[in-house]
Write a structure and sequence with these properties.
By secondary structure, the protein is an alpha+beta fold. The chain is built from 2 helices and 6 strands; from the N terminus they run H-H-E-E-E-E-E-E. The longest helix is centred in the first third of the chain and has 27 residues. It is elongated, with a radius of gyration of 33 Å.
């Protein structure tokens, strides 16, 4: 009695692959898929809330209004700073040459305004203040900008 050698007979690909690598993986159940979608939605909504509130909570903003170069050793910068009334602010301003190298830089102190000052009578209640700063430069500048503003002593 002879037995037939089955190793030489071709087997279906599904069976031979399953023997070699294991059976097909099961998909996620409906409950698991629903949970993953809900978790993704909650994470997305949380991220959007964080982005919208973090930019709204920035208590100091600035805007460059213009600059002028009076000579090779001076530049003037006009800018506005918006902050909560009664808050002292520091701003770093810089002058740049044609190769974007810094040729003048300083930190400007903007003191808190007094409640009875003229600025407090403005449309925004003294939140926005305009400043003109003169920067001494090492060489001819072609622009001047506000590099950043912050509240002294506040965590960044």
């Amino acid at each position: 009695m002879t037995t037939e050698d089955k190793s030489g007979t071709p087997q279906p690909a599904d069976i031979s692959l399953a023997n070699r690598y294991g059976g097909p993986k099961r998909g996620l159940s409906g409950k698991a898929k629903r949970g993953a979608v809900i978790a993704a939605l909650v994470a997305g909504i949380g991220f959007l809330a964080w982005v919208s509130t973090s930019s709204a909570m920035s208590s100091v903003t600035f805007k460059d209004l213009g600059y002028s170069t009076t000579d090779a050793t001076r530049a003037e910068l006009d800018f506005q700073v918006t902050r909560e009334p009664g808050t002292a602010v520091k701003c770093a301003v810089k002058a740049l040459d044609s190769k974007f190298a810094v040729v003048g830089w300083k930190v400007v102190d903007i003191p808190p305004d007094q409640p009875d000052s003229q600025q407090a009578q403005g449309a925004d209640g003294g939140r926005t203040i305009s400043r003109r700063e003169v920067l001494r430069t090492e060489s001819q500048s072609v622009s001047a900008v506000v590099d950043g503003c912050w509240i002294p002593g506040a965590a960044k």
